[in-house]
Amino acid sequence: MKIIILNKPFNVLSQFREDDTHPTMANFIEDPSLRIAGRLDLDSEGLLLLTDHGGLNQFITHPNNKKYKTYLAQVDGDITEEAIAKLQQGVELNDGMTLPARVNKVSEPEWLWERTPPVRYRANIPTSWVEIQICEGRNRQVRRMTTAVGFPTLRLIRTKVGTIDLIQLQLQPGEQTEIEPLLYPDFKDLPPDEPYRSRSYVKKPGGKGGKPIHLKNKKEGEKKKSGTKRIWQMNESERPRRKTNGTTRPNTKSRGRGR
Question: What keywords are annotated for this sequence in UniProt (predicted)?
Fold first, then answer.
């Protein structure tokens, strides 16, 4: 399994498909086997995880697995303790209530790189920084959460996915590095990387193939029985009647098997 960590710059699309107006992953990643696990929005920056493992995206983003993503958000205004408490409890969004988040007000970090273009500056309105950890993956979730409590996000940087720390890796915007999965506890319970298999199939012990469940459970030579009569097996009183509005003439043509 290969895992690449990229520090995604601002204004870069989390996709490999080329775009006429914005740079994409194709400008940074050349390995065609890699796929994005946990996207970042165009206007968000920071840790982006790419892998050749098919099930890693679901493993990281599904809230049941409790893989917390850590974000550093610069918000419009001096965020209050009341607003932080609301974020910690969960806030109501248009797609439902969020799970409780881990939230702390922090100072502007010393390691922070410059953004191009920079965040707008307004002398009469201060800004503040907050660290938010969530285990969900809704669209633009952190931005919608801070807006819901009255402090819109001006700049958003993802710094961690589980124990993978972008700041410890010392990656500048656009830089990337490969990590060893065995060094991170986040990948200990990762499901095996297998191609999609229909749930109606049962895998053979030690093999790759399988039988449909209804065939696997059927004894050898046993004919499948059906409790539902076919239309030609019913007598006249059992056959379903077509509903009409009273204006349709009855069908007098003879139909059926052998006629």
Answer: Isomerase
